[in-house]
Design a protein that fits this description.
- The protein has about 375 residues and is an alpha/beta fold.
- Strands 1, 2, 3, 4, 6, 7, 8, 9, 12 and 13 form a ten-stranded mixed sheet that branches. The chain has a three-stranded mixed sheet with strand order 5-10-11.
- Helix 11 packs antiparallel against helix 13.
Length: about 375
């Protein structure tokens, strides 16, 4: 795999993400084997410290559904190498994950939408500041269930019509223009019913791409049309079970469940198929702030897939259990290095090395147990 040739600094660009992803092989939906070298340590990578013999650590987290497939795989593979560390995760959505983090009912939270200032102020003072680090890049696709309609292309005008409810049939002229074989069949838009970082990424794009969009953007919006599903899992199931359905889901859910996904028209006017390589190009030229809260609602690149973002882990500066915090920080450093093999396999976008290095440095602000 070709890694980055150009170093990336905070405040500078993500331009070399595209160079990385061009070297990533296309992932087959049937892939289930462990990648070669996935369980070995990188010669220059930080190595996770194994817990003391007999000192099992049980860590629990909750939040975003979009990266849940990757998180579960990471936790399983890490446990094979570190049997004393058990990490469990509730895929409940970004909104619920942030709430549980603030309520201190988890050891870590997860969200596809960066923490708002108002959320940061709600973190109990005894936990110190919230530490937000990116875990991976991801992208949102329009999955659909229309038998016989292959290689669907959705223009910006068609996408806007679907989400605002003005398009009610698959043979609407706005769809038919780019899809001559679109059938005369009712169209059902499926969206999230829960607070969702996936919705935040999706509606941030819609707000930029659709001049007449009135519902705004965020983890929850008042949808003018459609039917809701809970989590990426729920929306995926609704699409699969409803002929004529179309809805937004994270790419890995479409990939794992063999849900067809549309090519989307980007800002430059090109129709871009949803692939990790094209999604990585969405970050080209984007700056990365100190808290990593980067957003690219409507990327400029002519070859960039238009709906992509980062997803985050939420940690306490002053955790209740420093030993758990130490074990989880070690896991994150492993995910940034050896864990990249699984990121590629499942169709997510690995962080550039310089960004993961900066994120790993941010973990140093967390008060963890001393190494024995």
């Amino acid at each position: 795999m070709a890694f980055f040739q150009q170093r990336i600094r905070l405040g500078l660009s993500f331009s070399s993400i595209a160079a990385l992803m061009m070297g990533v092989a296309a992932c087959s939906p049937q892939t289930t084997t462990t990648p070669q070298g996935a369980t070995g340590s990188s010669p220059t990578a930080p190595t996770a410290s194994a817990p003391n013999a007999g000192a099992a650590v049980s860590i629990n987290g909750a939040g975003a559904t979009a990266p849940s497939l990757l998180y579960q795989r990471w936790f399983q593979e890490y446990n094979k190498q570190n049997p004393g560390v058990q990490i469990s995760y509730d895929s409940v959505g970004s909104g619920a994950g942030v709430k549980r983090f603030i309520d201190q009912t988890v050891d870590f939270g997860a969200s596809d939408d960066p923490l708002k200032d108002e959320d940061r102020t709600k973190v109990p003072a005894e936990r110190g500041k919230a530490v937000q680090v990116p875990s991976t890049g991801l992208f949102i696709v329009m999955g659909y269930n229309v038998p016989g309609l292959a290689d669907l292309k959705l223009s910006r005008e068609a996408l806007c019509g679907i989400v605002d409810g003005s398009i009610k049939s698959w043979d609407d002229p706005k769809i038919k223009k780019d899809n001559p074989n679109a059938p005369s069949q009712p169209l059902t838009f499926v969206h999230r019913s829960d607070g969702s970082g996936t919705t935040a990424i999706f509606t941030s794009h819609v707000a930029k791409a659709c001049p007449n969009w009135k519902a705004g953007s965020g983890k929850s919006v008042e949808w003018p049309t459609g039917t809701g599903g809970k989590g990426n899992e729920g929306v995926t199931a609704q699409i699969q079970q409803t002929p004529g359905a179309v809805g937004y889901i994270e790419y890995s859910f479409a990939k794992q469940n063999n849900v067809a996904a549309a090519s989307l028209q980007n800002k430059s006017g090109a129709f871009i198929a949803p692939t990790p390589e094209a999604a990585a190009k969405a970050f080209s030229g984007a700056s990365v702030p100190a808290d990593f809260a980067m957003k690219v609602p409507d990327p400029e690149g002519k070859d960039a897939y238009p709906i992509a973002g980062l997803t985050y882990l939420l940690l306490y500066e002053n955790p209740k259990d420093p030993a758990k915090a130490k074990a989880f920080n070690d896991f994150i450093r492993w995910a940034y290095t050896d864990g990249k093999a699984f990121t590629n396999e499942l169709g997510f976008i690995p962080l550039p090395e310089d960004v993961s290095t900066k994120a790993a440095s941010a973990l140093d602000s967390i008060k963890v147990a001393a190494t024995k």
